[in-house]
Every structure is written in structure tokens, then in C-alpha cells.
């Protein structure tokens, strides 16, 4: 067996694949926010009981968690000090001159993870060429380490100027701290983010040091529980860039786990889209707390190198702490099943970003929530079965949902049904607006990208979001309600190494570049061997971060393999083509500058073999009908309900219809045709019978 478990903000999802039979089992339970490991073990044991298999037969368990993100947001990490080059301790507070809101006179930024009394100027200086101007004052560092330990500081981040070129002083400072105060955890910026841009390097090192102890304690406790339960297989962690890491690697670089859950969903979406015959799609993941959108090009998700944590305005770019780690490129907005509806200062209906989460949850959960949410609206509209939510494990309270919506309706002068439809449409438009901007910024047209929808709430909202975007159709894969956990099981073990080595491309010492790339590949080899990957199965992909001289942002392009003829000319051609594709214009007539070099080391990707479905007619899968709201037909109407597990390959269902499975419900609007492809994906297109097109 292979098992993937994703702890999200509202739900903990599980996917179990039996490689002997090809069976896929899906589990979902409410996240236990106070103790995430309890929900992890609960959903694991429930799934094993349903499968009738012991944990001893699991050979791989892959885990994704929001623990790192939550520690930064809640400021619940370790007391952490920052050691900086003399005169630079306030760089993490000064930040960048760019304002994320030009017209906000009271603009606030997140407070640095190390307050000013824990930031220290260290006598030392390395110049921009890597040479030493002022040697490190080792005695000063040793004395400071003793003082830090005496004041209950448990972690130290070290970020010296130009350490990405010469880490000598950071390494010497770390050695001094270990001699004087061996109990302190230490993060070096030259190890966690060896790149230019001192502010980003410092915040990344601080974040890594800040959360390290919490992640180590969590992993130690969880692995001990698994061992007591009989697990003796391989335990791996999902990273934000879509690769797996050994627990030891994750404990050294916990910031690489910031977006582990969403990364798994996008990775699975890319693999399923490719098997279904779609190379370019828009992945749409709507869960209980947020919605995530990501462009997939050429059957591969895009990867970004910047991430923001602990935003003052959660969904406003530039308002958070910049973290320089590779992540799947996605946009996140506060639009989930638990998103709360309210009136703004102008009396207009708004939904999110505040969420009811798992505790207390939407009003219909019956756990004490009273605020109207998206899930309450979907229930009142008839899209959800109150007796089949999570397969019947959680009964939904329709009366409580109506009461929550009625409070808002009284203010608006609208009926409960009108409020429910308003919430449904507002959240759909919010997601469509975010998706349109995200797609256009990546040089794509949303009208040519089919939407692959997943997450517990995604299949229920995808058709309206796709309609607003003008997308050509919607794909809902099997196990859509827990696709992030499924993505964990198709991810390869991987590690990305990066180092800045700036210079004008035409004048670079290519032999020095090759040596640098080989050093990064050697680091990747060591990390993957620790994760159990056989050396002969490791591959390395090389990238360069390039820009036109004088520009402030880089574009990543592949680096030719070692031994290639005219590698510089190939890089120049690739960069010019990438610039033209991204900006729809040729670049300026200036030299090209290299900034950083990257090597992605990967093991083999596990196979994704979805169980094939037999043929069948829709009537055999029909469960019954219930009243559901569709404005195209004048409001509520009796709507057929189908069991997705019994819809065979080739089955066609005309909308309006509801297609249910344990973890999610597909809403087929009037004028749509739902068909089941050979993989078991439900494809939603416009119904030819409704449009007049030939069948």
C-alpha cells in the first residue's frame, strides 16, 4: 500500500492506493486544529479499517502539513535571534521601498520574526567579489551566544553580506555558537537561500530557524506514533515545489514545506490532465478555507521562487514576509466552503476571506457556528445532500443553515434563497476574477484553458467559475475531494539547489559555472540518497536565472547539458524566446545578465494508474432526485442525483444534474453535458442538444 495524507485548514484528506489490486480508497475528516496529529491518525486508522488491511503492509506514507505556515501566522515558533553584518541588523524591518498599497497612509507590514532586541550587529565584512575586508570577531560571537542561551533564545539565524558568494564567516560564526552554546539551533542564510537580495535571504533564514523546533517535535511525535502502530515503511514529506523529502531534510529546511498541500493537488492535476489528453489546463482547488488556482503548461505545473508568509492582508501581494524557496506557482484567495458572507461598509454582499474553518465550521455543521458561509448557501440551494456529506459521517443541519442566511437576508431585505444564490455567485465571481488575472499574468488566455476542478467544494463551483472565465470545459478527476493527497503519491523525491553567481552572460567563466552546477548536483545526490533513492535513478535538471542588464527580475531558462557545444549561445536564444513568450515583445538591445543557477535533482515519479471503469447507462447510477436551484430554469426544480462510482465509461448525463461521491458533489448546470472518459474523469461541456451543434 501507498498512503498520502494532507492536513488542510478545514479537512484532513487521505488517499490509499493498493498496488496489488489497483484499488483506490479515499478518506476525509475534519482537521483537529488544536492537535493536527490526532486527525492524521484518526483518518489513517479509519481508512485502514475500511480497507481491511494493517498498517504494517504500507510501504510508503507521504505527508503534507500546514504546520509551518500556521507557526508563522500564529507566531508560535521559537524565540529566534538574528546575527547580521555590522550596520545591517534592521534590514528585516526596513524591507523594500515598494508599498503594497500606495494610498494607505496607515500601511502596516508584518513584524520581523526577530524583534529589534534580538537582532545583533556582528563585526565582519565580505565584499561583493567574495573577498574578506573585515575578519569575523569570533570572540564577540562566542560571548553573544552565551548571553542568548541565558535569555531563553533557542534558535539563531545568521545572514551576513555577500555570504552567497563566500559563506566562510557564516560558517565560522556557527562553529563559534556551537562551542559556546551547543543547545542553540542555527540556520545559515548561505545554506537555506544562497542568493542575492539580502532582505529576502535574511527573512528566509529567520523563518527557517523560527519554525524548525516545532516541525522537529511534530515529526518526532508523529513518527513515534506510527512506529507504535506498526508502520515500518518509508515516511516522506511533501515540499512546496512538488517533490518529496526525507524527514531529516524537511527538519533542516522546514520552510520548503510552506505550501506542501496545494502543491500535491496541482501535481496530481497535471498528471491526470496529461493522461486525459490535456497538456494545458487551469487547476482549480476549492477546499474548506481557500481556493487555489495554478496554470499547467505542457503537462507540468509552473514553479515560482518567491513566496510570502504571514501577510498583513492575507491575499494582497507584497504585504507579507518574503521567503525564497521554490514553490508550485499558484494564487490563493479566501474563497472556500467555510468562507463567511457579510455586508461591507457600502452595504454590498462580500464573501471571505474570513473563514469558519473546522471549528466551529459553517452553521450547518452543528458545531456552534452561526455565521452564514458558502457551504450553508450550497446546502440551501440543494447542491449538497444533508445526509450524505462525507458519505454520511457528518449530518448537515438545514435549519441552522437557513437561520444563518436569514439573519443576512433580513438586513438585505431578501429571502433565504436569494441570499444563498447571491453568496454562491459572489464567491464564484471572486474566484473567476482571481483566475483571470493569474492566467493573463502568465501569458495565457483563460478562454483556451479547460479547468480541472478538485477539492471538496471545487466540483460544485467549477461550472459557474468556468462559465465566467469563458473556459472551454471542466474536468473533474476521480478522488477529486482528496486530490492533494493523491498528488503526494505521484510526486518524485526531489531537491532543488540554488546559488547566485552573477555576471554578464557573454563574459562568464563557463568552467566556473560548470563547477558550481556540479556542486549543486552533488548536494542533490546526497539529499535524495537520504530519502532512499538509488543513485542510478537520480536525474539532474539545470536552470539559469537570466535578465537583461539593468532589469530587476529574472526569467528561468534550462541550461544545456554538460559538454554541450556553444552553451552560452543556446542560453541566449532560450532566454530571448522566453522573454518574447512572456511579454509578447522582443527584449531591449542590451547584454544579458546571469544572476543565479539552479539544479533540480529528482528520483523517478511513481506511476499513477487509476482504476478503469466498466461501461454503463446513467439510469443504473441514478440515486433519486432532490430540489436544486438553477436560475436558468426559474429557480428550484426536481434534479436527478447520480452515484459517481456507478457511472461507467462513456456515460452521458445532461444538466441540470448532481453527481455525488463521498468527498464532493459535481453540479451540472442546465445546458451542460457530463460524460465519463476512459480514466473515470467527468468532462463537462456545453450540451450539443442545447446549443444546436451536431452531436
Please summarize the sheet with the most strands.
9 strands, mixed
Oligomer: single chain
Number of strands: 35
Strand proportion: 25-35%
Provide a count of the helices: 18
Mean pLDDT: 89
Structural class: alpha+beta
The low-confidence parts are 690-695
Q: Helical content, roughly?
A: 25-40%
Outline, from the CA principal axes? Answer: globular
Radius of gyration: 26 Å
| C-alpha end-to-end distance | 43 Å
Describe this structure in words.
This protein has 695 residues and is α+β, with helices and mostly antiparallel strands. 32% of the residues lie in helices and 26% in strands. It contains 18 helices and 35 strands. The strands form nine sheets. Strands 13, 14, 15, 20, 23, 24, 31, 34 and 35 form a nine-stranded mixed beta sheet that branches. It has a six-stranded mixed beta sheet with strand order 3-2-1-4-11-12. The radius of gyration is 26 Å and the shape is globular. 50% of the residues are buried.
Descriptive tags:
18 helices, 32% helix, disordered C terminus, 695 residues, globular, 26% strand
How would you summarize the topology of this molecule?
Layout: E1 2-7, E2 11-17, E3 24-30, H1 36-51, E4 60-64, H2 67-74, E5 80-85, H3 91-94, E6 119-122, E7 125-126, E8 132-134, H4 138-150, E9 155-159, H5 168-180, E10 185-188, H6 189-192, H7 198-228, E11 234-238, E12 244-245, H8 247-252, H9 260-275, E13 281-286, E14 291-297, E15 300-301, E16 303-304, E17 307-309, E18 321-323, E19 327-328, E20 331-333, E21 339-343, E22 349-355, H10 374-380, H11 398-412, H12 416-441, E23 451-454, H13 458-469, E24 474-476, H14 483-488, E25 494-504, H15 510-530, E26 539-548, E27 555-558, H16 567-583, E28 592-602, H17 618-621, E29 622-630, E30 635-643, E31 652-654, E32 657-660, E33 665-668, E34 672-676, E35 682-686, H18 688-691
Parallel strand pairs: 1-4, 4-11, 5-6, 5-9, 9-10, 13-23, 23-24, 30-32
Antiparallel strand pairs: 1-2, 2-3, 7-8, 11-12, 13-14, 14-15, 14-20, 16-19, 17-18, 21-22, 24-35, 25-28, 26-27, 26-28, 29-30, 31-34, 32-33, 34-35
Helix pairs in contact: 2-7, 4-5, 10-11, 10-12, 11-12, 12-13
